[in-house]
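fwd from M.: "can u put these together and see what the complex looks like"

so here's what she sent:
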Amino acid sequence: MNQDLMEPVPKKTASMADGPGSRMLPLRESALLLDIDGTLLDLAPSPSEVRVPPKLATSLSRLLARTDGALALVSGRSLSDIDRIFAPMLFPAVGGHGAEMRISTESEAVATHAPPMNPDLIRRFAAIAELHAGILVENKGYSLALHFRKAPDTEQAIYHAVSAIRADLPNAPIEVLPGKFVCEIKHSGFTKATGVTELMAHEPFKGRRPVFVGDDVTDETVFAIMPDMKGLSFSVGRRAQGVDGHFHAPSDVRAWLARLLDDERAVAE
Ligand SMILES: O=P(O)(O)OC[C@H]1O[C@H](O[C@H]2O[C@H](CO)[C@@H](O)[C@H](O)[C@H]2O)[C@H](O)[C@@H](O)[C@@H]1O
């Protein structure tokens, strides 16, 4: 069998749980869709403290070229934040949990579903941070994240306060997204899954087999649509429901990405 046509199959190793193993993906037929925090990058005490390992930057750039541009970052972060983290590199991306999209490195970012959140709502939700100095507000304009990694005991109080505001505004088109030590309030009507579906309708993603890797609750919307798209999904940390396999940690995802390039080189030589 041509190595280039081999599919990733679950393979148990000590470090990678049942991730795709060391077998290669047919990169010219695949679309690599990669979550950022907790998947590509190790989690950090605050959003601005994440670090992109130089080897990861190299792998992503080379994979972008090897997939003819069909590699995208799929994140809850805004596109401007994604670009700041990965600067000077630029990648196709779905940002803000599906609120924004950039199909190629040459195209403009498009705010597909990002109506600005009502300023009064932003102000009310942001005021919840006054509960504790350790609560960090991340205002994305179209959504607001309340981070409590530095004040984990405030989780219940935060959700309670958010519920109280929502009860006051039962018709507001907003939803609450729980994440890792974060409670995010965003417009309803879009998710990472709607973002990925839109992205996959465009060249160079169109017609390829999506391969999604994610770790968080919000990534479950994408895990759920992969079978219908004839795609593959892998979770990080825990084994999420319906995935094809999982990695132990972001370092294992990074090692797998590097190995994809090595495997292709081996076939080419
Ligand atoms: O969809 P992702 O790319 O996984 O982004 C999810 C959220 O990631 C960021 O917050 C998380 O990572 C921080 C840095 O490691 C960490 O301090 C925080 O506790 C995590 O929740 C980001 O700030 C959010 O906007 C994203 O929605």
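replying to her w this: The chain has two domains: 3-113+190-268, 119-187.
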